[in-house]
TrEMBL record:
Belongs to the TRAFAC class YlqF/YawG GTPase family. MTG1 subfamily. Residues 14-178 form the CP-type G domain. Its main location: cytoplasm. This is Ribosome biogenesis GTPase A. Keywords: Cytoplasm, GTP-binding, Nucleotide-binding.
Amino acid sequence: MTIQWFPGHMTKARRQIEEKLKLIDVVIELVDARLPLSSRNPMIDEILQGKPRLIVLNKADLADPAVTKQWIEYFKQEGFMAVQADASSGQGIKEIPLLAKELMREKIEKQLAKGVNPRAVRALIVGIPNVGKSTLINRLAGRNIAATGDRPGVTKGQQWIKVGTDMELLDTPGILWPKFEDQNVGYRLALTGAIREEILNVEDIAFFGVKYLAKYYWEPLKERFDLKDRPQDFENPDEIVAVMEAVGRKRGCIVSGGRVDLEKASGILLRELRSGKLGRYTLEAPY
Ligand code: G4P
């Protein structure tokens, strides 16, 4: 699902989140563990107006575990509470209400000291499309609540979902737009399938992916497509295209004259990459 974000959509999405912020205590910001910065909204700090925040690196099952650890450390150093999760299987989900409560600890302790019984922590999930907001809401709720493919601008009655005794969650997530200014961000999002291919050229996306994989994840790429020659100079486009051609030959993408159909080869490569056939990978590292 892809939303075409125009300035009007952004303003509306922002306003909707600001409305929801009035109702909640903590924000659960969902990012994709494979691209934790590129899958963030560029104005997130400003939009959330200092609300206590837990950053969840979702789809950790698809990401490189060593780099995910580095990212969690990075966010902690930035002053955030951060945790990894896999909303599809439910791995890491149990910790979320506990950490949300931890974010409110001071306030809860003050209330207890005054003899007031603290109510459940109220939370809102926010993130760009396709990071797994609906999947996480359904997981936390233990049933199907949010229709996947939610769109900004579609308003419906909001409800609280009880998550154990300590947390209540708004059933509609806050949807935000990704960064658009940086083309590499676009390529990373496209590689994971978060933005539609029509926006960027499929061969350019595959080129970006092959270059990155050849540099950081050569073994799985080599194994999958029986490759022989690793590029020596990653900045030399001919060497990257040679790898793409080898992938195309392996998958039978040959046109008349024995030429490799690069567009078809790129499509196949992207499908295999997105469906996890090339193993776990992370497209950006914090250090
Ligand atoms: P959104 O509300 O933020 O837009 O995201 P949504 O929950 O719809 O999830 C988008 C896709 O990501 C879904 O796949 C969902 O199953 C998958 N997903 C969510 N969380 C995880 C996770 O932790 N690990 C993995 N591996 N996948 C996750 P889908 O319905 O098949 O859509 P698509 O793959 O066709 O885009």
